[in-house]
Amino acid sequence: MSKQNIAKQAKGAFPWLIMILMSSVTFVGILSELMPSGVLPQIMSDLNISEVQTGNLVGYYAIASAIFAIPLISLTMRVNRKYLLLILLGGFAISNIIAGLVYDYTLIIILRIIGGICAGVMWPMIAAYGMRLVDESQHGKAIAVIMAGNTLGISIGMPLVTAIGNDYGWRTEFIGLGIFIIVIGLIALFALPSTPGEKLTKSSSPFALLKIPAVLLVLLLTLLGVVAHYGVYVYITSLVDEIQLAGGIESALMLFGAGSLISVLLAIKYTDKHLRALTTAMFGLLIVSMVLVLLFGKITGIAHFAFFLWGLSFGPLVTLLQAAVSKQVDSAIDVATSVQSSVFNLSIMIGSSVAGLMLGIYSPLSLVYLAIALSIPGLIIAISSKKTLD
Fold first, then answer.
1. Which H or E element spans position 155?
2. Which own/partner pairs from 4-13 qualify as long-range (CB within 8 Å, at least 24 positions apart)?
3. In 3D, which of 353, 113, 365 has the Cα closest to residue 231?
4. N or C: which end of the chain has fewer CB within 10 A?
5. How far apart are CA 280 and CA 283, in angstroms?
6. CB 336 within 8 A of CB 325
7. What is the helix (H) or strand (E) element at residue 363, kind and residue range?
8. Cα–Cα distance measured from residue 350 to residue 344, given in angstroms and rounded to the nearest whole number
9. Cβ contacts of residue 106 below 8 Å, gap of 6+?
10. Domains of the chain
11. In what way does this protein cross or attach to the membrane (predicted)?
């Protein structure tokens, strides 16, 4: 059976194997972005740099994604989706492997920016790529499965690579991920269906989309949710040390990941029918988890439960926001998701930068207050956005 026929057949039955392969791409994509978060002290010591400089390894990656996503998605709209994805995987692999081999901070930042550029194109295009392989009624499910890799990267991948980094060094962690990405690329070369690009028109341009009020509302939810979550997550090691969590960072990431995994399974099942309810729950759970950290952060058991609840909130973040923006357009979903992805990554940069500045003045618990302050308006907007999210 040809790959084109497989793609057509997928329109009827949900193509689980193809979607799981795409999910593995988002799995390594989020690991490529967040890996430094779990080994901040090691990188600081090895490169002799400050905590803020080390946080910039995540922040600059994110801002590169934000800046280049929209123009590069527009420029690559006509490119075959499969071949574009293979090029991006190559960029991820090379940037991680070389970063693990060199000792110059500036060069590592440049390599992180290259990885960020690849991520800026990958996140929006892979969701749209997957949606083109299924019926419209399964769009939310396709996004949820593909973006489950993001959650699995956090729930399983981050604890695993952090453990590898702590036991064998952060350089082994980076090089190992690069090799794993090459393996995924080889499988994708033979397994993914070839899908042509599409033409970009004036009505589907990024500027036209920004005139749609519902799109702007989703972008605002993206800004609030991402800054709230990532402002804390990028410096999760510092927060864990501050509250002296039993089991340390590995325990925190494992519980956080378990919650994320549960919530993404719920998102796969319910995103198409209950988008607003899930988005509301996402903001509500973040508020509850952060309040528990503030009030009971030094109490074993309750503090661990707070990280689990935080994971429940974090898990479907990418899925819900991309599904929400996709609902607002009829064509050029790649462009719509690229706009949302740019705001998403810009928000990561804002979150990590603001959090880094706050850490220079206040304790890590100040980041928890920031998350709560941003989540409250997010919760109110989600509850009242019936026309946009229902």
1. none
2. 4/193, 4/194, 6/193, 7/133, 7/193, 7/195, 10/133, 10/134, 10/193, 11/133, 11/134, 11/135, 12/135
3. 353
4. N
5. 6
6. yes
7. none
8. 10
9. none
10. 3-389 (1.20.1250.20)
11. Multi-pass membrane protein
Contact 366, 358 (CB under 8 A): yes
Polymer length of the chain: 390
Q: Which pTM value belongs to this model?
A: 0.80
Q: Which tokens go with 13? A: 């039955």
Structural tokens at position 164: 């590898």
The pLDDT of residue 10 is above 60:
no
Instruction: Give the integer Cα–Cα distance in Å for 151 and 264.
Output: 7
The pair of three-digit structure tokens given for residue 121, joined into one six-digit string: 């194109």
Dump pLDDT digits (tens) for 148-196.
898 888 778 888 898 899 899 999 999 999 999 999 999 999 999 988 8
The two three-digit tokens of residue 366, written as one number: 């100040």
Q: Which residues contact 198 (CB under 8 A, 6 or more apart)?
A: 77, 78, 331, 332, 334
Provide the token pair at 158. 């981050």
Residue 156, token pair as written in the block: 């399983």
Tokens encoding 255: 């519980």
* Amino acid symbol at 74: S
Are the beta carbons of 326 and 139 closer than 8 angstroms? yes
Q: For residues 22 and 126, is the Cβ–Cβ distance under 8 A?
A: yes
Cβ burial of 133 (10 Å; 0-12, 13-18, 19+) is: buried
The answer to whether 3 and 194 are in contact (CB under 8 A) is yes
Integer Cα distance of 273 and 306 in angstroms: 28
Between these two residues, 284 and 272, which has the higher pLDDT value? 284
> In the chain, what percentage of residues exceed pLDDT 70?
95
Tokens 């058991």, located at residue? 301
The angle, 0 to 180 degrees and rounded to 10, between the axes of the packed helices 302-314 and 248-270 is 40
Tell me which amino acid residue 292 is: L
Q: What's residue 1's pLDDT?
A: 41
- Do 363 and 142 touch, CB atoms closer than 8 A? no
Tokens in use for 48?
């002799």
Is the pLDDT at 319 greater than 70? The verdict is yes
pLDDT in tens, 207-262: 778 888 888 999 999 999 999 999 998 888 899 999 999 998 889 988 998 898 89
* Cα–Cα separations (whole angstroms), residue 223 to 26, 109, 311, 370: 20, 24, 18, 13
Q: Which amino acid is at 236?
A: I
